[in-house]
Design a protein that fits this description.
InterPro entries: G_ENGB_dom, GTP-bd, P-loop_NTPase
GO molecular function: GTP binding; metal ion binding
Protein name: GTP-binding protein, HSR1-related protein
Bound molecules: guanosine-5'-diphosphate
Distance between the termini: 15 Å
Pfam families: MMR_HSR1 (PF01926)
Keywords: GTP-binding, Magnesium, Metal-binding, Nucleotide-binding
Largest sheet: 6 strands, mixed
Number of helices: 6
Order of helices and strands: EHEEHEHHEHEH
Strand order of the largest sheet: 2-3-1-4-5-6
CATH architecture: 3-Layer(aba) Sandwich
Oligomer: single chain
């Protein structure tokens, strides 16, 4: 069974995207991080997996934040063989501000750390740059994000990895196309 896995910080629009992709609403109860299990939906011979949101959340302790991160890391390592692509969802409108806040504290921003981890595990990651509807200077913001993730701008050189989308408006075509080509690649490789 092949899997498409969605990861992302809390509040980036991951549940909205999961619904746009699968037609299934993520059960509300698990969203505040009360439960820590991945949520999966099977479509044909593919399983879409929504991982719990990581990072800071109101009402979530530091210990619980660490638990979520550990769970995600372990899940991805255990399932690496069957994951066709890991989609890292980010809020493109606040990515830079949040990254800079972490860096000013001398820490590696959690989203950069996660992206590097997905690359190291060779999970053919896709960056879903969500909430693009909120950004006026899109090209520039996407260039900055690409650069922060180790992809030399312009971001368009990386269109096979970066998908600017608006999950809320249902404008997710670039991501659908990348997922489709990852599936084709996986089915044509031995
Ligand atoms: P999650 O915590 O990552 O699962 O995030 P949600 O899917 O619950 O979304 C968090 C907030 O972002 C909600 O208020 C959504 O309506 C909003 N949101 C999600 N996608 C988009 C988008 O593409 N554009 C805008 N402007 N808001 C979005």
């Amino acid at each position: 069974m092949c899997e498409i896995v969605l990861v992302g910080r809390s509040n980036v629009g991951k549940s909205t995207l999961f619904r746009a992709l699968t037609g299934e609403r993520v059960p509300i109860g698990r969203r505040p991080g009360v439960t820590f299990r991945p949520y999966s939906v099977r479509i044909g011979n593919l399983t879409y997996v929504d991982m719990p949101g990581y990072g800071f959340m109101k009402y979530r302790s530091w210990r619980d934040q660490e638990r979520v991160k550990d769970l995600i890391v372990r899940y991805l390592e255990d399932h690496a063989d069957r994951i066709i692509t890991a989609v890292q969802v980010t809020d493109a409108a606040s990515f830079l501000e949040i990254a800079e806040r972490w860096e000013s504290r001398g820490e590696v921003p959690v989203e950069i750390e996660m992206w590097e981890f997905l690359c190291d595990l060779k999970l053919n990651p896709i960056l879903a740059a969500n909430k693009i509807d909120r950004i006026a200077n899109r090209e520039q913001v996407l260039d900055w994000i690409a650069e922060r993730l180790g992809m030399e701008p312009p971001w368009r050189r990386w269109e096979d990895r970066i998908a600017p989308i608006s999950a809320k408006r249902g404008e997710i075509e670039p991501l659908r196309n990348l997922i489709k080509s990852r599936i084709e690649m996986a089915s044509s490789s031995p």
